[in-house]
Each structure stands twice: as C-alpha cells, then as structure tokens.
Amino acid sequence: MILIIGHDASLTGAPVLLLNFIRWMKQEHREELVIILKSDGPLLDKYRAIATTYVWKEPVTKRNLLYRIVNSLVDLSRIRERKMIRAIFRTRPQLILSNTIVNGDLIEKLRGHDIPVICWVHELENVIQQI
Q1: Residue 38 half-sphere exposure, CB side, CA atoms within 13 Å?
Q2: CATH label of the domain that carries residue 118
Q3: 110 CB-near residues (< 8 Å, 6+ apart)
Q4: Dist CA 65 CA 90 (whole Å)
Q5: How far is the C-alpha of 82 from the C-alpha of 18, rounded, in Å?
Q6: Which long-range contacts (CB under 8 A, 24 or more apart) does 122-125 make?
Q7: Is residue 77 within 8 Å of residue 71, measured between CB atoms?
Q8: In the chain, how many domains are there?
Q9: Is the model's pLDDT at 18 over the cut of 80?
C-alpha cells in the first residue's frame, strides 16, 4: 500500500498532475492507495473516486455552530487527526509519496513508523527558500 500526500484538491498544476499520476498507478500497477490531502477543493470527489481519501484540515467554517463552539473548548481537530493517523497506519503503508515540499509538517506528524518517503518537488528554488 502506498500513502500519497497532496497539499489540496484545487484545479492547479500539482494537484491535477497528482490526480493523473494516481489514476495511472491504479490502472497500470493495481497499487492499493490511500490519499491524504492537506485541504479540500473542487477535485476532491475525483480523488475519492480512485482511493480512500482523507482531508487533513477540514475548514471549521464548514461545520455547524455547535461544532465550532465545542472545538474552541476542546481541540476536536487534533482528536480527528489522531484518529486519521491510526486509520491510515492500520493499512500498513510501505511507502509515502508526497506531491510537494509544502507537506513537510504533515510528513513530520506521520514519521516514526520507519516508512520510506519520496517527495516529488514541483516548487522552484525561490519558493523552497521561503518555506
């Protein structure tokens, strides 16, 4: 199983390229895949049609008022993240493929399981220096 990390599901270059790459992997190599996107976007349903897809940071504004009030008292997003990490590692990934250098913080949260990481860097040097 391969765990794939993308930064979002927007209609921009890296997410579209990743989506096409995932389609190819699924079709040609029949790999079992799990996807984590740091945030959602218009391509989210297309990712979900291919493999189990998690959205790491769900915007709180999408939640109802009660959820937002409780979240301000108890960090529900951190609890949600821990549940997501447990679910992902139950699938026993053999490789983590990160589609951009901006996923470093998420990769850091996933480390400690002795899984190799490949980072597909699309950013140019000036963007990398800003991170």
Answers
A1: 18
A2: 3.40.50
A3: 3, 85, 88, 96
A4: 32
A5: 25
A6: 122/13, 122/14, 122/17
A7: yes
A8: 1
A9: yes
